Amino acid sequence: MFKLKMSDAKLLRDMVTAISTLVDEATFKIDSENMKLRAMDPSRVAMIDFEWPKTIFEEYVCTEPTKMCINISELLKLIKRADRNEVVELSLDEKNARLQVKITGKYMRNFTMPTLEPAEEEVPTPKVTFNVRAKVTTDGLRQAIEDAQLVSDHVRLEADSEKLVFNASGDLMGAVIELQKGSDALLDLEIKEPSKATFSLSYLLEIIKAASATSEIAILDFSSDMPIKLDFQQTKEGKLTFYLAPRIETE
User: Fold this and answer.
1) Strand, helix or coil for residue 171
2) Coil, strand or helix at 119
3) Which CATH architecture best describes the domain 132-244?
Protein backbone atom coordinates (compact mmCIF):
# COMPACT_ATOMS: atom_id res chain seq x y z
CA MET A 1 0.00 0.00 0.00
CA PHE A 2 1.22 3.50 -0.71
CA LYS A 3 0.02 7.09 -0.85
CA LEU A 4 2.04 9.80 -2.60
CA LYS A 5 0.99 13.43 -2.55
CA MET A 6 2.57 16.17 -4.68
CA SER A 7 1.64 19.85 -4.87
CA ASP A 8 3.68 20.52 -8.04
CA ALA A 9 1.42 18.98 -10.67
CA LYS A 10 3.56 20.38 -13.50
CA LEU A 11 6.68 18.55 -12.29
CA LEU A 12 4.73 15.30 -12.06
CA ARG A 13 3.23 15.84 -15.52
CA ASP A 14 6.62 16.67 -17.07
CA MET A 15 8.23 13.58 -15.57
CA VAL A 16 5.43 11.24 -16.67
CA THR A 17 5.66 12.81 -20.15
CA ALA A 18 9.40 12.07 -20.25
CA ILE A 19 8.78 8.45 -19.26
CA SER A 20 6.01 8.09 -21.85
CA THR A 21 8.44 8.85 -24.70
CA LEU A 22 9.97 5.39 -24.29
CA VAL A 23 7.56 3.04 -22.53
CA ASP A 24 3.87 2.26 -22.85
CA GLU A 25 3.64 0.14 -19.70
CA ALA A 26 5.83 1.11 -16.76
CA THR A 27 6.60 -1.00 -13.69
CA PHE A 28 7.43 1.27 -10.76
CA LYS A 29 9.15 0.02 -7.62
CA ILE A 30 8.02 1.89 -4.53
CA ASP A 31 9.51 1.40 -1.06
CA SER A 32 9.87 3.43 2.13
CA GLU A 33 12.59 5.65 0.63
CA ASN A 34 11.93 6.18 -3.05
CA MET A 35 10.05 5.51 -6.27
CA LYS A 36 12.05 3.96 -9.13
CA LEU A 37 11.65 2.87 -12.72
CA ARG A 38 14.15 1.22 -15.02
CA ALA A 39 12.76 0.04 -18.35
CA MET A 40 13.58 -0.43 -22.02
CA ASP A 41 11.49 0.70 -24.95
CA PRO A 42 9.70 -2.05 -26.94
CA SER A 43 12.42 -2.13 -29.62
CA ARG A 44 15.12 -2.41 -26.89
CA VAL A 45 17.08 0.45 -28.42
CA ALA A 46 16.70 2.86 -25.50
CA MET A 47 16.46 2.64 -21.72
CA ILE A 48 15.18 4.97 -18.99
CA ASP A 49 16.46 5.05 -15.41
CA PHE A 50 14.26 7.20 -13.15
CA GLU A 51 14.25 7.75 -9.40
CA TRP A 52 12.41 10.10 -7.06
CA PRO A 53 13.23 10.11 -3.34
CA LYS A 54 10.42 10.56 -0.85
CA THR A 55 11.59 14.14 -0.20
CA ILE A 56 10.13 15.18 -3.60
CA PHE A 57 6.65 14.59 -2.22
CA GLU A 58 4.63 16.56 0.36
CA GLU A 59 3.37 13.28 1.75
CA TYR A 60 4.93 9.87 1.17
CA VAL A 61 3.61 6.72 2.80
CA CYS A 62 4.67 3.22 1.78
CA THR A 63 3.97 0.45 4.30
CA GLU A 64 5.69 -2.31 2.30
CA PRO A 65 7.72 -2.51 -0.92
CA THR A 66 5.36 -2.50 -3.89
CA LYS A 67 5.60 -3.09 -7.63
CA MET A 68 3.02 -1.26 -9.70
CA CYS A 69 2.62 -1.54 -13.47
CA ILE A 70 0.45 0.99 -15.27
CA ASN A 71 -0.30 2.26 -18.74
CA ILE A 72 1.72 5.49 -18.84
CA SER A 73 -0.24 7.25 -21.60
CA GLU A 74 -3.51 6.67 -19.72
CA LEU A 75 -1.99 8.03 -16.50
CA LEU A 76 -0.71 11.06 -18.40
CA LYS A 77 -4.23 11.84 -19.65
CA LEU A 78 -5.41 12.08 -16.04
CA ILE A 79 -2.47 14.11 -14.74
CA LYS A 80 -2.84 16.59 -17.61
CA ARG A 81 -6.19 17.55 -16.10
CA ALA A 82 -4.36 19.14 -13.15
CA ASP A 83 -3.26 22.80 -13.25
CA ARG A 84 0.39 23.37 -12.39
CA ASN A 85 -0.16 24.22 -8.69
CA GLU A 86 -2.92 21.76 -7.93
CA VAL A 87 -2.30 18.81 -5.61
CA VAL A 88 -2.12 15.32 -7.09
CA GLU A 89 -2.39 12.26 -4.87
CA LEU A 90 -1.63 8.72 -6.03
CA SER A 91 -2.69 5.72 -3.98
CA LEU A 92 -3.02 2.01 -4.66
CA ASP A 93 -6.11 -0.06 -4.06
CA GLU A 94 -4.39 -3.45 -4.02
CA LYS A 95 -7.58 -5.40 -3.37
CA ASN A 96 -9.17 -4.20 -6.62
CA ALA A 97 -5.85 -3.75 -8.47
CA ARG A 98 -6.55 -0.10 -9.25
CA LEU A 99 -4.55 3.12 -9.01
CA GLN A 100 -6.46 6.05 -7.54
CA VAL A 101 -5.60 9.53 -8.81
CA LYS A 102 -6.99 12.41 -6.78
CA ILE A 103 -6.62 16.02 -7.99
CA THR A 104 -7.43 18.82 -5.57
CA GLY A 105 -7.55 22.51 -6.49
CA LYS A 106 -10.43 24.60 -7.77
CA TYR A 107 -12.51 21.48 -7.24
CA MET A 108 -11.85 17.83 -6.42
CA ARG A 109 -11.57 15.01 -8.96
CA ASN A 110 -11.13 11.32 -8.24
CA PHE A 111 -10.06 8.96 -11.01
CA THR A 112 -9.31 5.26 -10.94
CA MET A 113 -7.40 3.19 -13.48
CA PRO A 114 -6.46 -0.48 -13.59
CA THR A 115 -3.00 -1.71 -12.72
CA LEU A 116 -1.32 -4.31 -14.94
CA GLU A 117 0.79 -7.38 -14.27
CA PRO A 118 4.26 -6.11 -13.25
CA ALA A 119 7.19 -7.01 -15.47
CA GLU A 120 9.31 -9.78 -13.99
CA GLU A 121 12.39 -8.87 -16.00
CA GLU A 122 15.01 -6.86 -14.11
CA VAL A 123 16.65 -4.38 -16.45
CA PRO A 124 20.36 -3.98 -15.56
CA THR A 125 22.28 -0.73 -15.87
CA PRO A 126 24.50 -0.89 -18.99
CA LYS A 127 28.14 -1.46 -18.10
CA VAL A 128 29.94 0.91 -20.44
CA THR A 129 33.29 2.70 -20.14
CA PHE A 130 32.86 6.26 -21.35
CA ASN A 131 35.67 8.27 -22.94
CA VAL A 132 33.76 11.54 -23.39
CA ARG A 133 31.76 13.56 -20.88
CA ALA A 134 30.07 16.74 -22.11
CA LYS A 135 28.04 19.10 -19.95
CA VAL A 136 25.55 20.93 -22.13
CA THR A 137 22.45 23.07 -21.80
CA THR A 138 19.35 21.11 -22.76
CA ASP A 139 18.27 24.03 -24.96
CA GLY A 140 21.57 24.04 -26.84
CA LEU A 141 21.43 20.26 -27.21
CA ARG A 142 17.85 20.36 -28.50
CA GLN A 143 18.69 23.02 -31.09
CA ALA A 144 21.71 21.07 -32.35
CA ILE A 145 19.60 17.93 -32.74
CA GLU A 146 16.82 19.87 -34.51
CA ASP A 147 19.41 21.33 -36.90
CA ALA A 148 20.74 17.86 -37.69
CA GLN A 149 17.25 16.49 -38.30
CA LEU A 150 16.74 18.98 -41.14
CA VAL A 151 19.05 16.89 -43.34
CA SER A 152 19.09 13.33 -41.96
CA ASP A 153 17.50 10.74 -39.70
CA HIS A 154 20.75 10.01 -37.85
CA VAL A 155 23.65 12.00 -36.44
CA ARG A 156 27.29 11.22 -35.70
CA LEU A 157 28.60 12.68 -32.45
CA GLU A 158 32.31 13.42 -32.44
CA ALA A 159 34.40 14.91 -29.65
CA ASP A 160 37.97 16.06 -29.20
CA SER A 161 39.56 18.17 -26.47
CA GLU A 162 38.03 21.43 -27.73
CA LYS A 163 34.62 20.73 -29.21
CA LEU A 164 31.57 18.52 -29.55
CA VAL A 165 30.45 18.06 -33.15
CA PHE A 166 27.09 16.88 -34.52
CA ASN A 167 27.60 15.61 -38.07
CA ALA A 168 24.50 14.75 -40.11
CA SER A 169 24.46 13.60 -43.72
CA GLY A 170 21.45 12.82 -45.90
CA ASP A 171 20.99 11.88 -49.56
CA LEU A 172 21.07 15.50 -50.68
CA MET A 173 22.17 17.70 -47.79
CA GLY A 174 24.56 17.71 -44.86
CA ALA A 175 25.03 19.64 -41.64
CA VAL A 176 27.88 20.12 -39.19
CA ILE A 177 27.04 21.71 -35.84
CA GLU A 178 29.97 22.53 -33.55
CA LEU A 179 29.71 23.32 -29.83
CA GLN A 180 32.96 24.83 -28.59
CA LYS A 181 34.17 24.08 -25.06
CA GLY A 182 33.28 26.94 -22.71
CA SER A 183 30.52 28.31 -24.96
CA ASP A 184 27.01 29.07 -23.75
CA ALA A 185 25.83 25.63 -24.96
CA LEU A 186 28.86 23.44 -24.08
CA LEU A 187 29.65 24.22 -20.47
CA ASP A 188 32.37 21.60 -19.95
CA LEU A 189 34.09 18.83 -21.89
CA GLU A 190 36.25 16.00 -20.56
CA ILE A 191 38.01 13.70 -23.02
CA LYS A 192 39.93 10.49 -22.29
CA GLU A 193 40.28 9.84 -26.01
CA PRO A 194 38.61 11.29 -29.13
CA SER A 195 35.41 9.37 -29.84
CA LYS A 196 32.57 9.17 -32.36
CA ALA A 197 29.29 7.29 -32.50
CA THR A 198 26.09 7.49 -34.56
CA PHE A 199 22.57 7.65 -33.15
CA SER A 200 18.97 7.83 -34.32
CA LEU A 201 17.76 11.44 -34.40
CA SER A 202 14.11 10.53 -33.80
CA TYR A 203 15.00 8.86 -30.49
CA LEU A 204 17.35 11.64 -29.45
CA LEU A 205 14.89 14.40 -30.23
CA GLU A 206 11.97 12.76 -28.44
CA ILE A 207 14.07 12.14 -25.33
CA ILE A 208 15.56 15.64 -25.27
CA LYS A 209 12.27 17.45 -25.92
CA ALA A 210 10.51 15.59 -23.13
CA ALA A 211 13.35 15.68 -20.59
CA SER A 212 14.18 19.37 -21.16
CA ALA A 213 10.96 20.30 -19.34
CA THR A 214 12.46 18.84 -16.15
CA SER A 215 16.07 20.00 -16.60
CA GLU A 216 18.20 22.84 -17.96
CA ILE A 217 21.49 20.91 -17.94
CA ALA A 218 22.37 17.50 -19.40
CA ILE A 219 25.50 15.37 -19.06
CA LEU A 220 26.35 13.32 -22.15
CA ASP A 221 28.68 10.32 -21.79
CA PHE A 222 29.75 8.31 -24.82
CA SER A 223 32.55 6.34 -26.45
CA SER A 224 33.17 5.22 -30.03
CA ASP A 225 30.32 3.01 -31.28
CA MET A 226 28.93 2.46 -27.78
CA PRO A 227 25.62 3.48 -26.13
CA ILE A 228 25.25 7.12 -25.10
CA LYS A 229 24.14 8.07 -21.61
CA LEU A 230 22.05 11.24 -21.25
CA ASP A 231 21.73 12.32 -17.63
CA PHE A 232 19.32 15.22 -17.19
CA GLN A 233 20.27 17.14 -14.03
CA GLN A 234 17.21 17.75 -11.87
CA THR A 235 16.52 21.11 -10.21
CA LYS A 236 15.11 19.18 -7.27
CA GLU A 237 16.36 15.81 -6.06
CA GLY A 238 15.93 12.77 -8.25
CA LYS A 239 17.34 11.12 -11.34
CA LEU A 240 16.31 11.02 -14.98
CA THR A 241 18.79 9.18 -17.19
CA PHE A 242 18.44 7.68 -20.66
CA TYR A 243 20.67 5.25 -22.54
CA LEU A 244 20.51 4.95 -26.31
CA ALA A 245 22.16 2.22 -28.39
CA PRO A 246 24.32 3.38 -31.32
CA ARG A 247 23.36 2.96 -34.93
CA ILE A 248 25.95 0.64 -36.46
CA GLU A 249 27.01 2.07 -39.80
CA THR A 250 27.93 -0.30 -42.61
CA GLU A 251 30.28 0.61 -45.38
Assistant:
1) coil
2) coil
3) Roll (3.10)
